[in-house]
Each structure stands twice: as structure tokens, then as C-alpha cells.
Specification:
The protein has helices at 3-22, 35-49, 60-68, 82-89, 122-125, 140-151, 155-159, 168-176, 187-190, 226-234, 238-246, and strands at 25-31, 52-58, 75-77, 99-104, 106-110, 131-134, 162-165, 182-186, 191-192, 195-196, 200-203, 212-218. By secondary structure, the chain is α/β, with parallel strands linked by helices.
């Protein structure tokens, strides 16, 4: 066998070993509303870079408490912009790493087809027993929902029928199970590939509430982590943004 053919056979294996040696992993705390897109992004990220993102999903407020108690997360993908800012000011994260990875869209949703009209008038008719809303003290989508209700002048009426979810994931489950006829959820939870998966919905105009800017930040535990750096850049790239957009987020 010639020298050239030997090199041709050996070189790819050597490159694979070198790539594996430089691969790293990072623990990522992900806002519950971003579950579906982040699962897709993480799989594509590992395929493209060799790095691995280990994902945990939950309420941004709870993640903040866990980070304060020393939880070993390397990145926070928050459901707001205030929590990453607070983390940076408190010296628990890298301020220069902060950026808005998505702008969330709030939606009034029912699992039942033709139940929610395209202007959300069902809120005024009162033709529902329960409405699921994420705890506004913990979840930015819950706060946006309450701002919307207040703007519509329906606070008292809606609060009397509200079932509070611990986070937007639990809130969606209340509505998806039918225990609540309506739910204020993230558009990303009911939309895929640009289409509503099931039921009926009113996409709440952005003017009805404060913008849901979702920021990412690298935490101190991962300031020198190659996977953390790579993932933050990947989230800004075309592949990740295409996935994010397909779930109804803006930029």
C-alpha cells in the first residue's frame, strides 16, 4: 500500500480523535417556553460542533434562586431580560455575554377548535370556567398576560377564573389537558413550522404588554467553557434562528 493511501485512511480517524478531545459540555438552564426549539437546537449544535448542551427546563424565577444557591449551570436562557441583567450586576455572570436570543409572543389558546376568535373576544363573553395563567411573579409570560387583561379592563373578571401555573410549561398543561378552557401561553408551545398544531388561538398584539425580551447570559461557572462560548455563538447563527422563528418568536 502506498504512503498516500495510508495517510488517506489514518487522517480522518486522527481528526475525529482530535475533535473529540476538544469537545466540551455545558449545563443550560432554559426557560420553559423555549423547550421545544431548544431541544432541536441542542441536537443540531452537537451534530455541528461536537459540543454538548445538557438542558434543564423551568421557570426563570426558580432558576435565578437556584443559581443564587450555587446550582452548577453554565448558561441561562431566560424568559426575560431583567434576570440576566440582575445576574450580571450581582457578579454571577459575564455581562459582556448577554444578548437577546428571542422575543416571545403571547397567545390566548384553547385546545378546542373555533373556541378562541382572532380578537380574543372570548375573554369578554365569560364563556369559560377556568383560564390558565403563569404566575406573574415568576414567569414573564404570566406578567404579560396580566398586563393584557388589565389593558382590556377585565382584571377582576379574569382573576376570578384564573388557575395559576408555576411556569409556562405547567400553564400549557392546564390548558392542553382541558382542565382550563383557556390559557395564556407562549406561541412557541402551540406552533410548529409556522402553523398552529391544534385548537384555536388569538396572538396577543405586542402593544398589549411589555416586550418579552428573552436574554441569554454565560454564568461564572462556564466563563472559560468552550461549549458555552460555542453555544452562545450558535444561537446567533442562521440554523438556530431558523428553528427559533419556526416556533413563532421574533428577533
Amino acid at each position: 500500500m502506498s504512503t498516500f493511501s495510508l495517510r488517506h485512511l489514518i487522517l480522518p480517524s486522527a481528526l475525529l480523535l482530535a475533535s473529540a478531545a476538544h469537545a466540551d459540555e455545558v449545563a443550560v438552564a432554559v426557560a420553559a417556553n423555549f423547550t421545544a426549539p431548544m431541544q432541536k437546537i441542542a441536537a443540531q449544535f452537537e451534530k455541528d460542533t461536537g459540543h454538548k448542551a445538557v438542558l434543564s427546563f423551568g421557570a426563570t424565577g426558580k432558576f435565578y434562586a437556584q443559581i443564587n444557591n450555587g446550582a452548577p449551570f453554565g448558561i441561562l436562557l431566560a424568559a426575560d431580560d431583567s434576570t440576566p441583567e440582575k445576574i450580571a450586576k450581582e457578579g454571577k455572570g459575564v455581562d459582556a455575554s448577554r444578548f437577546t436570543y428571542a422575543i416571545g409572543q403571547l397567545v390566548l389558546w384553547s385546545k378546542q377548535a373555533n373556541y378562541v376568535d382572532d380578537k380574543g373576544a372570548v375573554l369578554k363573553t365569560g364563556d369559560y370556567k377556568h383560564i390558565a395563567i403563569a404566575n406573574p411573579k415568576l414567569a414573564p409570560y404570566g406578567l404579560a398576560a396580566m398586563q393584557t387583561v388589565e389593558k382590556l379592563g377585565l382584571t377582576t373578571q379574569v382573576q376570578a377564573k384564573t388557575v395559576l401555573g408555576e411556569n409556562i410549561g405547567q400553564t400549557y398543561q392546564f390548558a392542553a389537558s382541558g382542565n382550563a378552557q383557556l390559557g395564556f401561553v407562549a406561541l412557541s408551545q402551540v406552533m410548529e413550522e409556522g402553523k398552529l398544531r391544534e385548537g384555536s388561538a388569538w396572538v396577543v398584539p405586542a402593544s398589549m404588554h411589555e416586550p418579552i425580551r428573552q436574554d441569554a447570559i454565560v454564568l461564572n461557572a462556564a466563563k472559560d467553557n468552550a461549549a458555552a462560548k460555542a453555544l452562545m455563538e450558535y444561537l446567533k447563527g442562521d440554523k438556530a434562528r431558523a428553528i427559533i422563528k419556526s416556533y413563532g418568536y421574533a428577533f
